[in-house]
Amino acid sequence: MKLNKFITSAILSTLLVIFLMLTGCAMYRDISPGTVKNIPVGEYDTAGTIKTGSAIVAEEKVTILPLNEPAPSPEYTIGQGDVLFINVSGKPEFSSMANTSTYSELGKIQVPSGSRVDGNGNIQMPYLGSIHVGGLTLTQAQKRITEVAKKYLNDPWVVVEVGEYKSHPLYLLGQFRNSGTFYMDRPLNLLQGIALGNGYDNTADLSSARLIRDKKTMPVDVSDLLTKGDQRHNVWLKPGDTIYIPDNKNRLVFVFGAVKKGGPVAIPPGGLTLPQAIATAELRDTGHDYRYIRIIRSLSTTRGELMVVDFDKILRGEAMPLILQQGDIVYVPKSSLGNWNDAINEILPSLQAFSALLQPFVSIKYLED
């Protein structure tokens, strides 16, 4: 089938990019100017791999198992910064409720001031002194304070309540309608945590959204949870977790290896092809092998794809230029490579340098093992 005007225009544009990319270098001279070539329509085998009409010569699907953790205890655990209201047998002198007072229409009333849990997990009680409650549930704290109060009172009773929740922070960053720091007063799952931010705006890039815990990106697909209702990803949150939803304005691919300007390349509104990305990064004058270029593609937080592309086939007009996607990592080998492990080992230092900008899948799979 002859190429229509659109495809012909795309081929000519690509050849122009290649010309700019290879200025000063040897050009393919076996393709005459104005040549129109027939490119076969892509066909797929039973495994879904393109057989013809594509420069992709090998594909490998990569899957990461989603996070799977047991449900936490439903009881709140006391921690640093929490303020506790404690009533010991109704006696103000033993309680944390009699330090301040105010006036109302009914006259002078006591206002609970509470006891704040310090950095060591202790509270200071009148007469009872320092009592360690950090890491305890309210029921456990009540029993511990009761035991201490028995030294001064006969058969004391104790009531413990949380006046301020300050020890279980949750950070919502990015394109939330209401971002900031929130404090969990009970165990929350991911959906409940996102709901605290009052949803997200229309610039949110859900495909790049991530759950960060202990400075690591967790294998949790926020996009599949929100758009497909995949409850496998509705995990329980932990104190200190961060939910980050970036915007969709800065769309990037990354080109590394045998190029002069390795790093991020912006995707323009009209899209970006592999030849255009390599032209922007500029091939080195010598020491490159672009016959089999490697691409790591993020399909979601827990799914990715490894591709080997015959770039030479594109240059000769035997395959359409591959259109890159947000977050693609393109590696131009400096010499012939062996398997994917060899390629990853060469790419790894570059990935570490740009770790904050990479897609969640790449961070989880290659930077956190």
How would you describe what is shown here?
The structure is a single chain. The chain is of the alpha+beta class and 369 residues long. The chain is built from eight helices and 20 strands. The chain has helices spanning 5-21, 138-149, 190-195, 222-228, 274-281, 311-315, 340-353, 360-367, and strands at residues 43-44, 50-52, 56-63, 83-88, 100-104, 107-111, 115-116, 122-125, 129-132, 158-164, 169-174, 180-183, 210-213, 216-217, 242-245, 252-257, 263-266, 292-298, 303-310, 329-332. Strand 11 and strand 12 (180-183) form a beta hairpin. It is elongated and about 100 Å long. 30% of the residues are buried.
Summarize the SSE layout with pairings.
Elements: H1 5-21, E1 43-44, E2 50-52, E3 56-63, E4 83-88, E5 100-104, E6 107-111, E7 115-116, E8 122-125, E9 129-132, H2 138-149, E10 158-164, E11 169-174, E12 180-183, H3 190-195, E13 210-213, E14 216-217, H4 222-228, E15 242-245, E16 252-257, E17 263-266, H5 274-281, E18 292-298, E19 303-310, H6 311-315, E20 329-332, H7 340-353, H8 360-367
Parallel strand pairs: 11-15, 16-20
Antiparallel strand pairs: 1-2, 3-19, 4-7, 4-10, 5-6, 8-9, 11-12, 13-14, 13-15, 16-17, 18-19, 18-20
Helix pairs in contact: 1-5
Summarize the structure in short.
21% of the residues lie in helices and 26% in strands. The protein is elongated, with a radius of gyration of 30 Å.
Characteristics:
about 375 residues, Outer membrane lipoprotein wza fold like, six-stranded mixed β-sheet, 8 helices, elongated
From the N-terminal CA to the C-terminal CA, the straight-line distance is 48 Å
User: What is the helix/strand order?
Assistant: HEEEEEEEEEHEEEHEEHEEEHEEHEHH
Low-confidence stretches: 1-29, 43-50
CATH topology of the largest domain: Outer membrane lipoprotein wza fold like
Whole-number count of domains: 3
Write the CATH architecture name of the largest domain.
Answer: Roll
Look at the structure and give the CATH class of the largest domain. Alpha Beta
Find the CATH superfamily of the largest domain: Outer membrane lipoprotein wza domain like
